[in-house]
Amino acid sequence: MTAEPGAILTVDPAAVVANWRLLAARAAPGAVAAVVKADAYGLGAAALAPALAAAGCRQFFVATPDEALALRPLLPGAFLAVLGGVWPGAEADFIAADIVPVLNELGEVDRWRAAARAAGRALPALLHVDTGMSRLGLDAAELAVLAADPGRLVGIDLRYVMTHLLAAECPDDPANAEQGARFAAACAVLPPVPRSFANSSGLFLGAAFASDLARPGAALWGINPTPGQANPMRQVARLQARVLAVRGVPSGATVGYNATFTAARATRIATVAIGYADGWRRALSNTGAAGFDGARVPLVGRVSMDLTTFDVTDQPGVRPGVWLDLIGPGQDVDAVAAAAGTNGYEILTGLGPRIARRYGSL
């Protein structure tokens, strides 16, 4: 049995490639990787990573070993790195699949060196230095230990030293320059290997943030890397949901759980096949919107698990079976995120498996 979906996410691989090329032009002469963690931010890494590889992308980053193992057959010969590092006991899997760990603490450095000794050859890795995020990466004390004993890196083919910007989307934040200075100081006491610095927004901070390898993620998928300014990236995704029913309600009638919306006039309500189980945020209740035929239709009432309701009184063409645009023309992912009080990352990565994924032009 093949059933029609209630919601469809259309993703345009050509637009993703165009975004990568734009970022590559900004980063030149440095290289630009693609961060395809979290299933390419919810858009489908199995379809999009190979499209980027075909366009010339040679370095890819994911978050976890299982993400890397799933992508390795689709990216033969590509540099494929795991930001979360190599977990104890996973060394053999990394070596067998030619997956590169990001080494985030001294114990991990020592384990990877031991794995190299057991393998009888040098093993590739990145070294992560924490410059202010305080999540992963060598802190100042660990960096000092490593700088005093560089022999701990013997057997490790160190491809890059990296750090991660914490406020790159805020160009006036002094943390950016502070991290730049800390990163430069850290690199000065480490072996002279290539550096990896800028994320999506970091690529728009200027020459001081250039490096040998940039690691954009969000900008590839159409999220604005320059908030408060026009988005330089192409939109890559369109989310549509099917109208299940349209009914008239009289003035004074309420809609949805807890009666949070009361009709101020005779109103046509369209019930649509998407809800918070699909990642359409409950926070959009009475604040979100959809598009139809170029017009905005407001979301009214509470977003429920499987259904969302919209006021389509002024859109007589809305009837059961038509589609409303939830992300797409007139409303990009950043606009949806603003209405939900979050960011575009959470909107995209939260889109659930009941939403059908299709690939082609928008």
Protein described:
The protein is an alpha/beta fold and 362 residues long. The chain has two domains: 13-221, TIM Barrel (Alpha-Beta Barrel); 237-359, Lyase, Ornithine Decarboxylase, Chain A, domain 1. Helices cover 27% and strands 23% of the residues. It contains ten helices and 19 strands. It has helices spanning 13-27, 37-41, 45-55, 65-71, 91-97, 106-119, 140-148, 174-188, 333-340, 344-349; strands at residues 7-11, 31-32, 34-35, 59-62, 79-82, 100-103, 123-128, 156-162, 195-196, 213-214, 237-249, 254-255, 261-262, 267-272, 289-292, 295-298, 308-311, 323-327, 356-359. It has a seven-stranded parallel beta sheet. Strands 1, 11, 14, 17, 18 and 19 form a six-stranded mixed beta sheet that branches. Strand 8, helix 8 and strand 9 (195-196) form a beta-alpha-beta unit. Helix 1 (13-27) packs across helix 3 (45-55). The longest helix has 15 residues, at 13-27. It is elongated, with a radius of gyration of 24 Å. The protein starts with 6 loop residues before the first strand and ends with a strand.
CATH T-level fold name of the largest domain: TIM Barrel
Query: What profile does the largest beta sheet have?
Result: 7 strands, parallel
Structural class, please?
alpha/beta
* Mean pLDDT across every amino acid position: 96
**Rounded to an integer, what's the Rg over CA atoms?**
24 Å
Instruction: Give the helices and strands as they follow along the chain.
Output: EHEEHHEHEHEHEHEHEEEEEEEEEEHHE
Unreliable runs, pLDDT <50, ≥5 residues?
none
Number of helices: 10
